[in-house]
Q: What sequence folds into this?
């Protein structure tokens, strides 16, 4: 037997990234392929067409997750899952998410080429709405699949133009009438997700593959500031309840309160919406997001718990309400999966670096239902969530090689 | 001869406000009738239809201003102009702007009823884009008419969805193919604009009519903050150039720097747009408006001149550019026009209060080309630029009575 890793083709894998990146391609060379959009529908069609020769069965579920299944020798055995997501940020790159799905397909292609049918089925999954930029929070599909959240709670979430997740899921199902709908939350034997690092470590240290030790915790919030609309020329400042001014006071206040000399805490306000958002009208309402991350769960908990009280203080005289959208404490992947990834890499001469994930991933939720792990590959300058996101064909292939051999090990030869 | 003021009909004038307010009516009882919108087109149609019995001629010009002309005995004499605007803020009221146009029409109706044809023509004008909320800056139509700005400079201004003033002007012209286009900037004998006060003084002091002494100065700016897009989970805070965080630092910094113990200075940031505006992406770009007003021109000049330097300082490490969109120093209307308004009011038993205008008006630009003045009527609680904006039929009628007699005086009996 030849290891499946010997059949991974770097040029073919690279080409599959370029092909997928046509769906939602931006002028600056990035991708705008937001969750449940026309672009994502087209990208899923491409995945089906591009794998037709592999004899995979496509499935979907009520949460809009998308699976490509390679049958195993034991039809009823819970599958080994691999994959990530193909939705992107509004100005995203070609590799974030897409790599995990395309590396999974390349691994199956390599398995086929090696002539092996493993004991368990292997499924490549594209989870619904990992990014959370069109519909907040992110990772809806994997959360619903793993039972970490109720799908029903996501259905009424709307995007900036008022379109709901529920409506878009129905549209996605209609677009794939021929793809069978499976019950949400199948048993899974194991989950391994390949992803670009989205940080600088692998590149700086000269490794092509990283073994992810765990995922940094993250809490997200929506802060709503309610003031009173007024005329900018006639209303004395003392009589105003200016929602935009109050929102900026809250953001600056929290930013100062959360100053971390060690620069480990991540505090980000990436989104703000103001009403009526007119130059000569004192704003009646401002709504902004908070993304708070810290690898230490206790710190993350206490800092996040301070947000509501501080926001109310800094936001006076406006009314402030703070709603927590998601709360995920830091986690460690099980040692056996990390050892397996490191071991299969070593077997084929690839050196690995152990490192934590600063970004959140769908593997967070799968971790709750099956042994899970992640494989990182470097990305240029650690840059992601950016049209300039970049990776090398050689690094991508190294990650896919390790993944192919790991999947075989987990699925059983 | 009976004075035209005796023919002003409070109920009819009130009804004309309700009719016009149907165009762009909001659920909360306000108006969303932004410049050059479908709603404004429909409202202009209504003005033509509602005045058909008065034998007025409609005209427009390249700047999209809209005129209804009552001929005088001397066809070639420069007309007396009255009016205001019928565009509104996105969540505006039923009286701001509309009152000046409808009071002008009511005055002409009263003149017709009194059987008088004055020596000069009288024209009621609805200026294009006074509000400046869809397209910044405001008062485009009157500025272009008065030669205070080049129309060509406005044509490329776009709204939030990328539609330009030039395109919308062409659409407006097409919608009124039957309305003759006059050269921009006709000679004008005098201009009187009626408007709600947008402040609390008349109501507090118990006057139904105010003689406006002048207009508070106003400068508007657009501040562009350029940072770098980055992943909210992986990018250390020290390495970030967060455009949204920098924008909030600038807004808070300016707000502190501009603290005025006398509460006369008005500093407003009413609008902000962030890119990509996604919760887990460090913002690459933030653009916000500044509206700065002060009745003392020297103070206004020096404060406004500080904005660029302060913004660059507060906005580090992002790049900040500040562009001034409009600069209008404080002005005083000529004493003879103010005396005329006060005199005609006194003649018919209406007491007046002299007061400055804190808000900007199209009369600012007409002041540069002809003797100009303004008549204020109270609005409830001084509230405007708000769906709750309100005025009484009786106060509106008092203003129209004074306007009718003033117009006759200016046009010559």
A:
């Amino acid at each position: 037997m030849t290891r499946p890793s010997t059949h991974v083709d770097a040029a073919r894998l690279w080409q599959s990234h370029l092909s997928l990146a046509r769906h939602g391609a931006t002028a600056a060379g990035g991708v705008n392929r937001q969750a449940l959009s026309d672009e994502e529908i087209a990208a899923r069609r491409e995945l089906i067409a591009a794998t037709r020769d592999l004899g995979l069965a496509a499935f979907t579920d009520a949460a809009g997750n998308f699976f490509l299944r390679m049958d195993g020798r034991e039809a009823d055995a819970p599958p080994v899952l691999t994959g990530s997501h193909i939705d992107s940020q509004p100005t995203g790159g070609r590799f974030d998410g897409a790599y995990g799905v395309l590396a999974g397909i390349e691994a199956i292609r390599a398995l086929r080429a090696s002539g092996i049918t493993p004991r368990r089925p292997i499924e490549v999954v594209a989870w619904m709405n990992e990014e959370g930029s069109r519909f907040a929070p992110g990772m809806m599909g994997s959360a619903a699949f793993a039972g970490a959240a109720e799908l029903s709670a996501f259905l009424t979430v709307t995007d900036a133009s008022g379109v709901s997740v529920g409506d878009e899921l129905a549209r996605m199902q209609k677009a794939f009438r021929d793809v069978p709908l499976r019950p949400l939350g199948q048993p899974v034997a194991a989950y391994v997700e390949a992803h670009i690092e989205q940080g600088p470590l692998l590149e700086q240290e000269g490794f092509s593959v990283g073994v992810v030790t765990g995922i940094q915790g993250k809490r997200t919030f929506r802060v709503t500031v309610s003031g009173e609309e007024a005329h900018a020329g006639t209303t004395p400042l003392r009589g105003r309840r200016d929602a935009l001014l109050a929102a900026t006071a809250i953001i600056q206040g929290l930013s100062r309160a959360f100053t971390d000399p060690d620069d480990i805490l991540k505090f980000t306000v990436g989104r703000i919406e103001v009403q009526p958002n007119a130059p000569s009208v004192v704003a009646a309402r401002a709504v902004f997001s908070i993304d708070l991350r810290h690898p230490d769960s206790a710190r993350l908990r206490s800092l996040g718990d301070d947000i509501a009280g501080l926001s109310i203080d800094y936001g006076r005289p406006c009314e402030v309400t703070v709603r927590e959208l998601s709360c995920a404490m830091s986690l460690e992947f099980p040692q056996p999966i990390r050892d397996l990834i490191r071991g299969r890499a070593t077997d084929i001469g690839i050196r690995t670096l152990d490192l934590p994930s600063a970004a959140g991933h769908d593997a967070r939720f799968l971790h709750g239902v099956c042994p899970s792990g992640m494989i990182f590959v470097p990305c240029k300058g650690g840059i992601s969530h950016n049209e300039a996101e970049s990776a090398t064909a050689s690094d991508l292939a190294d990650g896919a090689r390790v993944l192919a051999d790991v999947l075989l090990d987990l699925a059983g030869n």
